[in-house]
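Task: encode each sequence below as structure tokens.

Item 1
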Amino acid sequence: MVSVALNICLQIVEALIAFHFYESISHLTKHKFKRFALVLGGYLVMCLLNLLFDYNVIINAAALLSFHFIFAFVVYKRKIGYSLLLSVLFTCLVGISEISVINIVALFENDNSKTIIDDPFNYILIILFSKSILFF
């Protein structure tokens, strides 16, 4: 897999997207920096989990789902059902965007998806495109 630094960059970018997502649907006005720090901290813990478990897809998805539930329920004070919906929605959107972009890049590179992810240049390309899709 790619370097630790690229994984940290990916997590920071995704944390910014998640923060923007929750802030756009939030009614909270005070303590914005505190909420950002909590979201970023959660993503850095997910980064550590990625590294500890060698980028295991199931653990990554479970962590993303769990942390987004915590973000919505604890940090943004949403109801349990709505928090679950938001966490499932965000996890699915991230997964679909990453899988789609990985397959598209693999198609253009005429290579398999595992080889594509291992190349740092392609990994940066995948991060940029898959995270850009989340803004639309």
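Item 2
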Amino acid sequence: MTMTKVVNGVTVELTAEEEAEISAEWSANEALAIGRARTKVLQAARDARTAIFGRLDGLQASAMTLSVTDAANAATHIATAGAIETAKEGLRNITAVDLSGATTEVQMKALILAQYRVIASAAPVAVQLAFAGLDA
């Protein structure tokens, strides 16, 4: 498709240089929009992560306390505390998710949410509750 412009009331085709300039401007605007979306999505991921860390810290402290006070189930409580630490490590890396293939905020959010789901699904069911509300 050839690009055109109107000069003195006459429609004329753009030169190759003019088309290249417009294309470069569009590309720059698109890159700027993608960069802004990425910043917004990563900040939202950090905010959600902070809330989840708080819940996990409470669950982990409880599991460690129970490992001392409930000797019969100490190994289970210690395993839960270890699983929580693994989930926390995954959360620390959530902003390293590869978003390079995403060109929209919706696509980026979906990639981050998918990573949250991977982290949560690897944890015990009681720990998965700390991730509740991410789909909202």
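Check on item 2: DSSP finds four helices and two strands in the chain. The first strand starts at residue 4 and ends at 7.
End of task.
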